[in-house]
Every structure is written in structure tokens, then in C-alpha cells.
Design brief:
single chain, alpha/beta, 2 domains, globular
């Protein structure tokens, strides 16, 4: 087949733990869909996390930042592992990811939570509570307590600082309201305004931004209540707007509605290039066993096609293929107990999804 005119440059960051295994399957599916839809993806690999530390003593080499900046989009697996747990905080694999988000200006992290009907029984929550859940966590990603200064641990006393500026709140709130306009027009902003000054500023600035979106219904919820409401009645939510750490926590909680954390993708946007990654971590306990679920990464690749490359048909193809594969009973081990016709390895389910992508019309 001749090379098409449409070419995209993708920065691939496989990372640590199960990262390389799941990214491999996403590339397999991307190759199938690009052939089908007639565009070309040129991959360039970059190091980040523990593997980067081993090779360069730096979890985020300059070459990775430069490579990401000149690409059309970034697909990332996961970072971290026991081996690097005792390193100084700026050398840890996680510091690589945090610095990359900051360096690229990726202040908004979108984490959609949808429940596949075929997996309603896979969640620890009741099917009737889950059926029809469709929410989006809009998590602030480059501020808050993750980045606030001062921060210190002298062995006797340790502290971090949760800080947000008006500008940081305005820009993330706009992303939430814009997203809501394309959905059910509801934003629930999460804070801890009964205790924290930073949350009181957050709440009042979100209210100011809301004035420009009169069609969107805005509510506020304390984070403890939000954590409870997510398991009590998740269908009440459309867009959940959160700061960095609250979004980190609530999105892991919300992922359990889908049945496995191995199913949820995310996109990080706000800079000149978008980064796409599963919400789960590097799962060092299951590395190399062929049991990691690559679907979150494959769905992240689909988001990349949709939002960074504008290849909507290709993204739809992947999303539909995943629905079909689940409907036909193919499951990785994390979901094996639920309506499984066949329990697959990481590699097998990637190949099956790629096959469906190529077949469908
Ligand atoms: C996530 C992860 C990261 C975070 C870690 C790996 C630094 O948990 O993307 O949710 O806390 O943001
Ligand atoms: Mg997390």
C-alpha cells in the first residue's frame, strides 16, 4: 500500500512496569486503524521515568521534552516501580511525569468514565446504580499541592503547600464549562471550602467563570461528600471539576464503576501538544506476566486520534472495536470472571482489537 499524504509524528513514551506491554498493543491497534483510514503515524521513542533514570540519571531527559514538543501528540504508558522508591523526590520516576506535564503546559486532564453495558457486573457497585453512568473528571494538572512551594521533609517535620492562583482556576474552569456545553451542561466543582482558603478562592473564581456559561448548571461539593456521592448515585454527575490532588483521588475511585482501572483513558491538554495516557500506574506486581489490560491505553490512543489529530473516524473505529470485543466475551484477567468467553493475554486482546478495527465498516 502506498504511503498516504497524511502523516503524523507521535512521541511514544513506554515508561516502566507494564508501560511497554500496553503501549505495544496500542501501537498495534493504531497501525491497524491508520492503514484502514489511510494515514501514516511516524513514531519516535523517548525515555521517561525509571528507565530514563537508569540510562541518564534523569527521569526526564531534555531530549524527551524536545522530542515531545516537536511531535503532533504523545502517547504514554506508565512510570514508577519499587526499585526507585527510595530515590530523592526530584529523581523519582513520578517527578519525570510531573515535570513533563509542567514543561508542556498540560494544565487540564480529562478523564472520562463510561460504563460498558457488557461489564455492568464487573464492578463492585450495583448494576442498577451504574447503568448509564457517563461522567467526565476535569482535573487541574500543573498546580495545587503537587507543585506548591515551599515543600520540605527534614526528617522531623514535613510539609507541602496547596496553592492556586486566579488564572489557574479560571483556565481549568473554562475547560470544564466548555466540556459541559458539549455534554449534559452540568458542572459540579469539588473543593474543601469549609476548611481550606485555597478552596474558598477556587469556589468564588469558579462562580465568576460560570457567569459566562448561563446554560450550564453549576453546583459545588466538598470533596468528602463527592467521594461518597460517586458511589451513592454517580448518575447525578456530568462534569466533575477538581484540583490536582482531589482529581487524582476521585478518578481512581470513579474508575471502579467501569469494572477495572485498566479501562480508563485520559488526555492532558492546554499546551501546544496533547499527552494521552491510561489513568492507572505501572503495576510492577504484574509486569511481564501478560495479564495487564491494554484497553485504557488503546482508548487513550483513540482520544489522541480524536482530539489531537482530528481523525474522528479512526477514533470511532477503535471505540466500536473495543465495545464489540467486550460484547463478544474477550477479557483480560482483571475482568475474567465477568461474562468471559475467552480469557486473553495482553498481547492476544490487543491483536483481537486490531483485527476488529481492520474488519469493521
Ligand atoms: C495519575 C498518577 C500520577 C499522578 C502519578 C504517577 C504521579 O497517579 O496520573 O493519576 O498522581 O498524577
Ligand atoms: Mg492517579
Amino acid at each position: 500500500m502506498s504511503q498516504s499524504d497524511k502523516q503524523y509524528n507521535i512521541a511514544l513514551i513506554r515508561g516502566d512496569g507494564i508501560g511497554p506491554e500496553i503501549v505495544e498493543e496500542a501501537v498495534k491497534v493504531l497501525n491497524a486503524v491508520s492503514e484502514k483510514e489511510d494515514f501514516t503515524l511516524n513514531y519516535e521513542e523517548y525515555l521517561m521515568g525509571g528507565v530514563a533514570y537508569e540510562a541518564t540519571k534523569n527521569p526526564l531527559p531534555d531530549a524527551t521534552i524536545a522530542g515531545c514538543l516537536k511531535s503532533d501528540a504523545i502517547l504514554f504508558g506508565a512510570i514508577g516501580g519499587y526499585k526507585w522508591d527510595n530515590l530523592a523526590s526530584e529523581l523519582r520516576p513520578e517527578a519525570g511525569l510531573l515535570k513533563l506535564r509542567k514543561a508542556l503546559g498540560l494544565f487540564a486532564n480529562l478523564r472520562p468514565v463510561a460504563v460498558f453495558d457488557e461489564l455492568l457486573d464487573a464492578s463492585s457497585m450495583k448494576p442498577e446504580v451504574l447503568k448509564g453512568v457517563d461522567l467526565l473528571v476535569v482535573r487541574e494538572l500543573t498546580g495545587g499541592i503537587y507543585f506548591g512551594e515551599p515543600r520540605e521533609n527534614d526528617g522531623q517535620r514535613a510539609y507541602n503547600t496547596m496553592v492556586y492562583t486566579r488564572e489557574e482556576i479560571i483556565r481549568i474552569a473554562k475547560v470544564a464549562f466548555e466540556s459541559a456545553m458539549k455534554r449534559k451542561k452540568k458542572v459540579c466543582s469539588v473543593d474543601k471550602a469549609n476548611v481550606l482558603e485555597v478552596s474558598r478562592l477556587w469556589r468564588s473564581v469558579v462562580e465568576e467563570v460560570a457567569i459566562s456559561y448561563p446554560e450550564v448548571e453549576l453546583t459545588h461539593m466538598y470533596v468528602d461528600n463527592a467521594a461518597m456521592q460517586i458511589v451513592r448515585e454517580p448518575k447525578q454527575f456530568d462534569v466533575l471539576l477538581t484540583g490536582n490532588i482531589f482529581g487524582d483521588i476521585l478518578s481512581d475511585e470513579a474508575s471502579m464503576m467501569s469494572g477495572s482501572i485498566g479501562l480508563l483513558p485520559s488526555s492532558s491538554i492546554g499546551g501546544s501538544v496533547g499527552l494521552y495516557e491510561p489513568i492507572h500506574g505501572s503495576a510492577p506486581d504484574i509486569v511481564g506476566q501478560g495479564i495487564a489490560n491494554p484497553i485504557a491505553t488503546i482508548l487513550s490512543a483513540s482520544m489522541m486520534l480524536r482530539f489531537s489529530l482530528g481523525e474522528i473516524k479512526a477514533a470511532d473505529r477503535i471505540d466500536n472495536a473495543i465495545k464489540h470485543v467486550l460484547k463478544d466475551g474477550y477479557r483480560t484477567k482483571d475482568l475474567a470472571r465477568y461474562n468471559a468467553k475467552e480469557v486473553c493475554t495482553t498481547e492476544q486482546i490487543g491483536s483481537i482489537i486490531a483485527k476488529y478495527v481492520a474488519q469493521e465498516d
